[in-house]
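Re: the request from the purification team.
They wanted to know what the chain is likely to look like in 3D before they choose a buffer screen. I agreed to run a prediction and write the result into the notebook, where they can find it.
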Amino acid sequence: MRSTHTNDGRRRPIRSALGMVAALAIAVSGLTFGTLVSEATTTESASAATAAGFDPGNIISDANFYNGSAMSGSSVQSFLNSVAANCKQQSGGPVCLKNFTQNVSTIKAVSGRCSAIAGGNKSAATIIAQVGAACGVSQKALIVLLEKEQGIIATSRPTNWMYQHATGFACPDTAPCDPAYRGFAQQVYAAALQFKRYQATPTSWAYQAGRNNAILYNPNAACGRKTVYIKNQATAGLYIYTPYTPNTAAMSNLYGSGDSCSAYGNRNFWRMYTDWFGSPTGGSSPIGSLDSLTPGFRQVTVGGWTADPDTTAAIKAQIYVDGVGKASVMANANRTDLAARLGSSNTAHGFSTTLSGLSAGKHNVCVFGINTGPGSNTLLECRDVSISGGTPTGVIDAASAVAGTLTIRGWAIDRDTTSATQVQVRAGNKTLGTLSANQKKAGLNAAKPGYGDNHGYSGSLKGFPAGTQTVRVYAKDLSSGSWTQIATKSVTQPTGYPWLAVDEVASKAPGSFVARGWAIDPDTTGTIRVHFYLDGKGVANIAADQLKSGLNSAKPGFGDKHGYRLEKSGISAGKHNLCIIAINTGPKNVNASICKPFSTPTGSPKVTVGQASAAGLGAMTVSGTAFDPDTVSAVALRYTVDGKQVATGTANQAAKGFDTAHPGYGAAHGYQQKLTGIGPGSHTVCVVAKNTGGGSDTSSCTKVAAASGNPTLLLDEVSSPSADTVRVRGWAIDPDTKASVRVHVYFDGASGKSIAADQAKASLATAYAGFGANHQFDATFTGRPSGATNVCVYAINQGAGQNTQICRSLTVK
């Protein structure tokens, strides 16, 4: 690696710049609200490095060297501007570093070393800031490395050699520089990456932290070595990069030359860092950013953040304007965007303050972060800002003309005062009127700080000439009384035949239609008439005077009340053509018309089966809705079971929500029907709607399982018609079968008699047609003892369910 040993005598032009920066630090740290110390008045800096502070084993702390967020790009740029303020490009030479840019290719991440860096055309400050952030190497350390290797930071006469070998990377003392690493960005990145290699593999190099190391004084080995106990990795990295330690002669003349055995690289790194940024081994100096300068009325609002890495407490931001201290504010406002950089619990480091009493013109604003504890103050950035003043300013936000009236709004400010001014509005060669710019315009003060929001103007002015005119707005200069043009806008006053729009022509219910839209005659803001012709025949003549929200926004100045809506019933079914005509009222006697075809609803009925279920032995219920698009009347229905018609009806019951789903038809299109004579098992139930008009009958079918379970048993008679006899008569049907079932008869609990329920009973064929008539039983039992007897009859179950029992008590004769 580079083994710098050039003595300081070759870099004498640096001294005055170093002293200037140190002096700036003194002025700010002392909170001196006076003029900043300039280069011309600077002599030896009171904060310059002294040899007694140099520790060869602790040249810079790890915390300071590996702080990748030490400086932002804008802070680096401000530093370059201030240190080399007198640098000017020489004829035939390269630009100064503060003005240097380079097209940099994208750099891929190196695992465990540096993150990726996007390519692009970048300034030297951006290159230094981005490399430091990507590799976790302090931008301050990179600045010092560039200066101690080539003197490129503070020089007023940079050379191509300085740029090509900026950090001395791959430039050993004993051989030429490797051409593969030529270029400013290449040198900065290669050096940072090399220091990260040292950090990642600390035991792979000749010099290591935490032990004694024998280090040469000079490339000439005859000059001898010094035993140095290296205390940290950053110091070890500096020795690996520049493998010499300063001898007594070099330290005795800290800003000059030693003897023939002196080497200066690591001495100069420590000295330059101390002069520019404070102690390299002490606490960290503040970091931060000047984020915004927002000019206003004789003022500027300064915003940003600053924090001292040595503490989570808020520090001060000190602000200078044109070299004069203007404000010292605590940077204690919460800035959630700092969480990723400083930690989620350490975000209260923002500041914002308004500096007032500034004159119009250009000003230079500098912001310093004020150090606490070890370290030194940090110049965050210097930036120019212009304070407006002089002639009035303003805009036309909107302007339109209707029927000789101009409607206009905007804002106007006299930049020399917060008082409201007046605006004069002219069109062509005609003055239309004067308005006061004293209305509230939300957000104006945010855009023009210090002036307030009450500088808006608006109004309607009559006398606007026909055709297209240039509208000019003049604001009154309150100091001189003269009118100053601040804005213009071309405005065309519309004229001609009406504007007609049709939003809808449709028939949503049988025998009716609805038409709606809007109509405006550009020659008037008043209402115009709209005529309607259905299939060539006039059917209506109405005023377009209904509210249509948003119309005035689309057609400024005319208002929202130009809508029309027509509903008409009693028309025939089928296809129709509706022509809508807007009647002209202006000078051009031409109406506007639009024709729209439409059809009344037609087609086959629409029928739904909402629910179908068994309803006891031999019966089921079905319900739903049905309507015919051709009519609002209820449709006739037929009900079939397994293809056989079992009932008829009409869909004329109220159905909840039907009128909402089918506007214009009403709610009475529901049906509910009980179907009887249904046999056992599963059946196909269909509801057939009879068609009216176009289309054909429509059906909707569903599968329904008949009732299942216990037999149905009925006792028509339990009697003792004569001595010693009992007659039992009734019927029994099992819903799971059409076949006859057995019936068991028990007397006083004794073993029963089994009889068949297979006799014909005519009424059963009617009531339970699906099961037939042969389900009656009638039996007479003789030889029964006289007296009280309990008779129990059981219908024996078939399929699902259980036997059904009925008991009766009687007295046997």
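For the purification team: Residues 1-47 have pLDDT under 50 and may be disordered.
Please add any questions underneath this entry.
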